[in-house]
Design goal:
The chain has helices at 16-27, 73-82, 96-108, 121-134, 156-166, 230-239, and strands spanning 6-11, 31-37, 44-46, 49-52, 63-66, 86-89, 113-115, 140-146, 187-189, 192-198, 204-212, 215-223, 246-248. The protein is of the alpha/beta class. The strands form two sheets. An eight-stranded mixed beta sheet has the order 3-4-2-1-5-6-7-13, with helices on both faces. A five-stranded mixed beta sheet has the order 9-10-8-11-12. The longest helix is centred in the middle third of the chain and has 14 residues, at 121-134. The protein is elongated, with a radius of gyration of 19 Å. It binds NADPH dihydro-nicotinamide-adenine-dinucleotide phosphate and ligand LZUJQKHR. The site of ligand LZUJQKHR has 9 residues, from helix 5. Residues 8-119 form the Dihydrodipicolinate reductase N-terminal domain.
Length: 255
């Protein structure tokens, strides 16, 4: 059976992830890249592909892939839903309230979509295992390590990990040590300290450290290359037009 061809646009097409996503779509026989947007893109008009720096010039398409910046992602996804695109959102930085608003809008407009804080399988599994471990190890801290060009801290994955852990743990016994240097104990999400490292040579990595009397458990994942996110982006593109709502988390569309 032939799968009908799906058209795709990419917001953030000039970026590190946008370029990987464009390369991916080019390799998929059932998908065609018809447009790309970025504010500093050099406009290009080919017979079936329009690259533009003006969002309103983007052609209609089935799927809107978003790898832009935290400050615009909410506005972009509102635009995508209201213009008939199914959003596949990798950009981090949406607040919980913004996610709810987008979900309501998607339901109202009968437009399925996916928001994935991390498209990498190693990160999705880390979050699953960390959630399970939290039941037995309520005391936990997260260290996330990224390339220095990352615009947001903490990472979307670290926030999602902390939320998943917190939903599955009983009372923790946090340390009450005094900070003699401000910030040295990290920032907190739901009482879970998160430490954000930004260093050259790193791509995207996370460690979850659980401690209990006399023992510790460490779960770690590493994305050494942005190609690690592409299997997840491909799966999202394959499924997004069949989704009935704006789903959060790649784990919710994995078979
Ligand atoms: N969910 C996941 O698995 C992953 C998510 N990410 C997230 O994806 C996002 C992009 O990451 P990455 O590709 O590394 O970042 P880059 O900085 O490499 O790319 C950012 C892109 O956003 C564009 N952009 C900048 N400002 C605007 C704006 N005002 N409106 C629209 N587009 C804009 C840039 O365009 P221009 O060049 O014209 O400035 C560029 O194309 C980040 O939020 C990151 O956290 C990253 C990796 C994996
Ligand atoms: O900016 C990145 O690079 C990444 N961003 C996402 C995040 O904030 O969690 C996913 C991954 O960590 C790479």
């Amino acid at each position: 059976m032939n799968t009908p061809n799906k058209t795709v646009i990419i917001a953030g097409i000039t970026g590190a992830m946008g370029q990987q996503a464009a390369e991916l779509i080019g390799t998929l026989p059932d998908f065609t890249l018809v447009g790309g947007f970025a504010p500093h893109a050099t406009p290009q008009a080919k017979p079936n592909l329009l690259i533009t720096n003006k969002i309103e010039e983007l052609p209609p398409a089935d799927i809107w892939i978003d790898f832009t910046v935290p400050s615009v992602v909410f506005k972009n996804i509102r635009y995508a839903i209201s213009h008939g695109y199914h959003p596949v959102v990798g950009t981090t930085g949406l607040t919980a309230q913004e996610v709810l608003e987008l979900q309501e809008m998607a339901l109202h407009d009968h437009r399925g979509g996916l928001i994935a804080p991390n498209f990498g399988l190693s990160a999705v599994l880390l979050m699953k295992f960390a959630k399970e471990a939290a039941q037995y190890f309520p005391d936990v801290e997260i260290i996330e390590m990224h390339h220095p060009g990352k615009k947001d801290a903490p990472s979307g994955t670290a926030i999602a990990t902390a939320n998943a852990i917190n939903a599955n743990r009983d009372l923790s016994s946090p340390s009450n040590s005094t900070e003699t240097i401000a910030g040295v104990r990290g920032g907190q999400v739901n009482g879970i300290p998160i430490h954000s490292v930004r260093l050259p040579g790193y791509v995207a990595h996370e460690q979850v450290l659980f401690g209990a009397p006399g023992e510790a458990l460490t779960i770690r994942q590493d994305s050494f290359d942005r190609k690690s996110f592409m299997a997840g982006v491909k799966l999202a593109c394959q499924k997004v037009t069949t989704l009935q709502s704006l789903v959060v988390g790649l784990e919710n569309i994995l078979d």
